Amino acid sequence: MNKEPVSRELFDEVMVPNYAPGNIIPVRGEGSRVWDQEGREFLDLQGGIAVTSLGHAHPGLLSALQEQSEKVWHLSNVMTNEPALRLAKTLCDHTFAERVFFANSGAEANEAAFKLARRYAWDNFGPEKHEIISFKNAFHGRTLFTVSVGGQQKYLEGFEPAPGGIHHADFNDLDSVKALISKKKTCAVVIEPIQGESGVMPADPEFLKGLRKLCDENNALLIFDEVQTGVGRTGHLYAYEMYGVIPDILTSAKGLGGGFPVAAMLTTAKVGASLAVGTHGSTYGGNALACAVAQKVIDTVSQPEILKGVNERSEKLRQGMMAIGERYGVFSEVRGAGLLLGCVLTEQWQGRAKEFLTAGLEEGVMVLMAGANVVRLAPSLIIPETDIEEALQRFEAAVKKLAQ
Questions:
Q1: Dist. CA 141–CA 160, nearest whole Å
Q2: What residues does pyridoxal 5'-phosphate bind to (predicted)?
Q3: Per the annotation, where are the binding residues for pyridoxal 5'-phosphate?
Q4: CB 3.0-4.6 Å disulfide test: which of 109, 336, 347, 349 passes with 341?
């Protein structure tokens, strides 16, 4: 086993250069704190980009992983396994869904959702009904299909030709959808209830209700990409509940495994029937280890006191960030829901979100960006309130230095 010292320089020697990670290499985490190779402590408001929903080294997740690791790790979908079936049943019991498909990442869950939407239309209306409407600045993953459905040209550049039959409307603008939707050709409309990557931008409730109506009128499926908003992130198990709008297909990943790679596509029995035997698959999808961990996550996060706690923590974090914003003139608003928050930079600080991330690290607090103009926060759903207070103090010290 290679036990040579590992440094940030090794990344440049052995990894393709598609990421630009910072110089800090965390080696241990507990709760909402992580420590690097030098033993420096950081308060984690990144949550692995909304993934470590129960923090680091959560005892319940450790025990679920340990217990399952001593039984079965992997079987493939030639057979099924107990953890996958239990998790599917739990997800159906807690949501609108009646059928589940498991995958390993948000992009894979979305890929499955888009394929299912086309297949369902093909089965029920014919091949002409294949077009998908998405939204500008959307993000749905990095496979060629999902990056094409996503509304950010920069992620597609150099990878064309892209799959066809995809149109992009304006987020929160129902008229722009009406101009594109067609009973003859549109098979689905896909949307993030809160656009994550492009700046933590919530959809207007009336807009989502309008989309549901338009889809119904045009025999199109409504797909909610809840990769980032799902699993308690907004203070509801899934954000569709907060809006009172039920989709036909919902995708979930990120927080679902609390850090273990797992994803799910949820749908109704009627729509799910179109993924008949052989139409789609995944070697690792429904992996026993992943599903055992995800089961513990859902069992924990779905508890009413946990979801209530998300909203209480949200308020504390939101008010703290707004106060910092007002004191130093850096944030014009803090938007989002639950523990997915976007602190929008004021005009004089436009384009400088990365500087806040870097300054935060120097003071021992980890934050994220959502585009160049928004500082994004997505901590553990159970981050202790004392950690929130300390993180705010550290972040204020970072902002104070920047402002000087």
A1: 16
A2: 106-107, 139, 225-228, 283
A3: 106-107, 139, 225-228, 283
A4: 336
Count of domains in the chain?
Answer: 2
Residue 282 belongs to domain with CATH number: 3.40.640.10
What is the per-residue pLDDT for 32? 98
Cα 168-223-213 angle, rounded to 5 deg: 85
pLDDT of residue 3: 76
- CATH classification at residue 26: 3.90.1150.10
CA 198-172-184 angle, 5° bins = 110
Count each helix (H run) and each strand (E run) in the chain, helices first: 14, 17
Q: Is the pLDDT of residue 1 over 80?
A: no
Backbone angles phi, psi at 290, to 5 degrees: -60, -45
User: Which amino acids are annotated as binding site for N(2)-acetyl-L-ornithine, given as ranges?
Assistant: 142, 282
pLDDT digits (tens, 9 = 90+) for 262-302: 999 999 999 999 999 999 999 999 999 999 999 999 999 99
Q: Is residue 66 part of a domain?
A: no
Binding residues: 106-107, 139, 142, 225-228, 282-283
Measured CA to CA, the distance from residue 167 to residue 224 in angstroms comes to 16
Q: Which pLDDT band holds residue 5 (cuts at 50, 70, 90)?
A: confident
Q: Which amino acid is at 131?
A: E
Distances, alpha carbon 9 to alpha carbons 19, 111, 242, 326, in Å: 13, 34, 45, 39
Helices (H), 218-363: 239-243, 269-272, 288-301, 304-328, 353-362
How far apart, in whole angstroms, are the C-alpha atoms of residue 11 and residue 24?
Answer: 12
Q: What is residue 151's predicted lDDT score, i.e. its pLDDT?
A: 84
